[in-house]
Amino acid sequence: MRNGLDMDLKRQGITSPMHLQKNVLVLFAAVVLLLAQAASARGLPEFTELIEDSSPAVVKINTVERKRVGRHFQIPQHPDIPDIFRHLFDPRSMPERQSQAMGSGFLISADGYILTNNHVVDGADEIQVRLIDRREFDARVIGADERSDLALLKIEASDLPYLKFAKPNSLKVGEWVLAIGSPFGLDYSASAGIVSAIGRSIPTEKNENYVPFIQTDVAINPGNSGGPLFNLKGEVVGINSQIYTRSGGSIGLSFAIPVAVAQGVVDQLKEKGRVDRGWLGVVIQEVSRDLASSFGLSKPMGALVAQLEPKGPADMAGIRVGDVIIEFDGNPIMMSSDLPHAVGRTVPGRSVPVVVMREGKKRALNVEVGMLGGGDASPQVSEAPVGGGRLGLDVRDIDERMRKRWNLAAGVVITQVVPGGAGAKAGLHPGDVIAQLGFHEIGGVDDYRRVESELPANELLPIRYFRRGRPAFHTFRIDE
Question: What separation, in Å, do the N-terminal and C-terminal C-alpha atoms of the chain show?
């Protein structure tokens, strides 16, 4: 009966309710599929046009370094050596060893300026640049900066394709990025990922920290160094520089130098072939939760000044040891590593406002930023011991040898730590030099005795000390 009704309806051009329901379901499924495809397209960007447009400005860099394999002796001057054999002892006749390296870079102007990593070209005797159209050029170094690991090269050519920098500090965590380079010598390879973090601090072997790195999960490998990191607009947001790896290849942790750093470096290298950085003249450390509480901060933040360079910019501006720098030139200092980044990019000679936390109160200062310049012995002690005291420490005055060796102005050196005492709980060791208790400077044993007797009980207090010449802050509490 239902089939006959359907046939009658079809003859009259009318669709039955059953068929209408099926059509609606099919239409609904099609709409859902289209929406899913659109969402997928939005989530996974299309990189083909970006790669096609940007690759011509990316270059492969090959370097050659020559070293003579010399014998470790001098040319004999004995007159009996025949002249025919003397050339064997001439250093110029020693065999020459060549080492080759490769990396990436990219053109930043039509007249042939190229940006890459300093470690790609450092020590190179020959630098050859190859473009995607297989043209090759000899390059010369305009300037290099070891601290930022950037180098500016120049090739003699014109009307070249080049890349543009993105607006500084416009990158966001989670944003899609793309790298183009020559990993393991495989020319013009592209890899994509997202920004994992911004402002990563990675100290160098010299314990310097002037680059707030971009961390990504883009597959970066040896040979990618110096290549560009793009946003989806095709703008350069960073210069690929380092990877963290245990195998030698990518494990999803790569680091790039942000354009905010690169632009300043390029401008200075073009102008004078070197980079001048700001200098404050302080040794700083991180602020822990306990230190924050002892300094009157609501949470751990800022850079704690552990040592001052005498007559340095910070010292001359009135900054004191024990101050916590919480703002520099209008920029909040949330972690101690934020301060070197901010100071380093400041033009030397400029006066900038600084906000510090001192003894629980904010103080505003102005500092004229200076220009950054380019085996421990056991402590010797003198004088009679004091005894355990309230801190559970025996101390003596420091001697002249310690003052000179570690550039100490004053303080007392710990000779014995009583187990279970306040000093032991604070992690102090024999040989540590105490320079400050609470908010009081310690000039010698007399100062130590006086300040120790006046310290409040059951309160978290800061202590500043030197361990083998290195300054540090910690906290202690006298339980009474």
Answer: 99
Residues 6+ apart with CB under 8 A from 81: none
Q: How far is CA 15 from the centre of its chain?
A: 70
Give burial (CB, 10 Å; 0-12/13-18/19+) of 88.
exposed
**Domain end point (choices 218, 248, 272):** 272
Instruction: Write the pLDDT tens digit of every residue in 15-72.
Output: 455 554 555 455 555 554 655 555 455 567 899 999 999 999 999 999 998 775 554 4
What are the backbone dihedrals phi and psi of residue 193, each rounded to the nearest 5 degrees, phi first? Answer: -175, -160
- Tokens at 180, concatenated: 């183009």
| Cα–Cα distance for residue pair 271/359, rounded to 1 Å | 44
Active site residues: 119, 149, 225
Beta-carbon contacts of residue 55 (< 8 Å; ≥ 6 apart): 132, 180, 188, 190
Cβ(292)–Cβ(300) under 8 Å? yes
Supply the CATH number for residue 447's domain: 2.30.42.10
Segment 69-88, tens digit of pLDDT: 554 444 445 555 555 555 55
For residue 467, is it within any domain?
Answer: yes
Domain-ending residue, one of 250, 272, 294? 272
Is 461 within 8 Å of 294 (Cβ atoms)?
yes
Residue-number span of the structural domain to which 464 is assigned: 393-476
Count of domains in the chain? 4
Quick one: pLDDT at residue 136? 95
Burial pattern 21-30, b for ≥16 Cβ within 10 A else e, equals eeeeeeeeee
Q: Same domain, yes or no, for 263 and 284?
A: no
For residues 120 and 88, state if they share a domain.
yes
Task: Kindly state the tokens that stand for 369.
Answer: 């930023």
Same domain, 403 and 353: no
Beta-carbon neighbour count of residue 19 at 10 Å?
13
- In whole angstroms, give the CA distance from residue 276 to residue 268: 8
Whole-angstrom CA distances from 133 to 57, 160, 301, 303 are 10, 11, 51, 50
User: pLDDT digits over 280-320, tens only?
Assistant: 988 888 888 888 888 888 899 999 998 888 888 999 999 99
